[in-house]
Each structure stands twice: as C-alpha cells, then as structure tokens.
C-alpha cells in the first residue's frame, strides 16, 4: 500500500497566549473571561482598576477598589467620509478663555454642523451659554474657584440634554459668562424657531 504524504497546516499559533491568560487570571476569573468569549464580540479588550479614596466620619481613608472589564470597538471611517471636504461646515474658532466650557462649545457646534450637513439649515449657530447654565449647574456650584461656576462635562451628556430639551439659537442670548444663578430659560424667538425641539433632533439629526 502506498503511503500518502502527510500535510500539516498550522491554523493558529501564539507565543503569548499562555502568558496573556495568566495576566488576565490575575485580575478576573478565567471562567468569566470564557463567558465573555462566548459573546463573540469584536473590539479592544481592557481590564481596568478604579481606586477611590473615601473619607467617612468614623472611617479614615477607606479605599474602594473596583476591577472591571470593557470592550472598546473602533469603527473604521468609510472612504467617502475621509475624502469629503468638511471645511465649509467648520465655524469660526472660539476661545473659552478662563472658563471650562469646551464641551459646551463643541456640542453646540456639532448641532450646527449636523443640521447643516442634513441641509436643514445653513450654518445657524446654537447657544452654548444654555448648556453651561442648564445641563449640570449643580456641578458648577461645587467648584473651589468661587469666581467661576463653569465645569467640565462630557459631550455625550450635553447631547442628551439637547435631545431632551432642545437648544436655543445663539442670537437669543450670546455667551456672557458663567453664573451661580443664571437667568431662567426663555425661548425669546420661539415663534421664529428660536430653538430645536427634541423630536426634530431625533428625526432630522439622528443625535
């Protein structure tokens, strides 16, 4: 009987697999990691440790130590997005000065850009003063610098506010600083469409 040649094909190999599993096992049970693998997710796998020192009335320097995992998926921009000329949709540069309001400026300009790209308007500017005043004013009051009541915040939280509450146009009340007690939110040009309602944002802007 003629012996046929044996063909061996390496389907997978890694010099780091066991060392990586050992590292993972130091922080989370491998059984938990196997459950994550069953989800067949794609993305960057991270293990994070969060430490937060807490001072309680009768417990000095207690530390909360939490370890958790997360998957971060990085989307690749399509070629048509990379090749597009976004220059016309960029408004004039704004200077936040001594304020912590860059998140509010970016959010307002995102609304402008999205509605411009969707051809609902042509570069209308929206009011970042409103975002500073009403998204999370309690945080501003906790600042140590009593000369300022602005604060740092994520753009996502600001966009959620816009979707729920709408946002006024910049001409309604130009930015004039951060205040401990801002004036009430008044839609001065509501009959002229002086704000974006939540329904229009969801329907037309997909925020």
UniProtKB/TrEMBL annotation:
InterPro entries found in the cross-reference section: Papain-like_cys_pep_sf
Highest taxon of the lineage: Eukaryota
Protein name per Swiss-Prot or TrEMBL: Cysteine proteinases superfamily protein
């Amino acid at each position: 009987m003629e012996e046929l040649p044996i063909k061996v094909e390496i389907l997978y190999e890694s010099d780091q697999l066991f060392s990586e599993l050992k590292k993972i096992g130091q922080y989370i049970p491998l059984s938990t990691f196997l459950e994550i693998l069953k989800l067949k997710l794609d993305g960057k796998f991270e293990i994070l440790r969060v430490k937060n020192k807490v001072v309680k009335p009768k417990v000095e320097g207690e530390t909360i130590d939490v370890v958790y995992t997360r998957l971060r998926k990085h989307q690749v921009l399509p070629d048509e997005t990379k090749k597009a000329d976004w220059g016309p949709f960029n408004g004039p540069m704004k200077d936040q000065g001594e304020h912590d309001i860059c998140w509010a400026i970016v959010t307002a300009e995102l609304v402008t850009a999205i509605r411009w790209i969707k051809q609902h308007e042509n570069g209308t500017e929206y009011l970042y003063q409103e975002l500073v005043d009403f998204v999370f004013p309690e945080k501003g009051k906790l600042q140590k610098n009593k000369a300022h009541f602005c604060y740092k915040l994520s753009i996502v939280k600001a966009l959620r506010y816009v979707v729920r509450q709408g946002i006024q146009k910049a001409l309604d009340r130009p930015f004039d600083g951060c205040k401990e007690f801002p004036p009430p939110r008044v839609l001065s040009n509501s009959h002229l469409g002086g704000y974006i309602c939540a329904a229009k944002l969801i329907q037309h802007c997909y925020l």
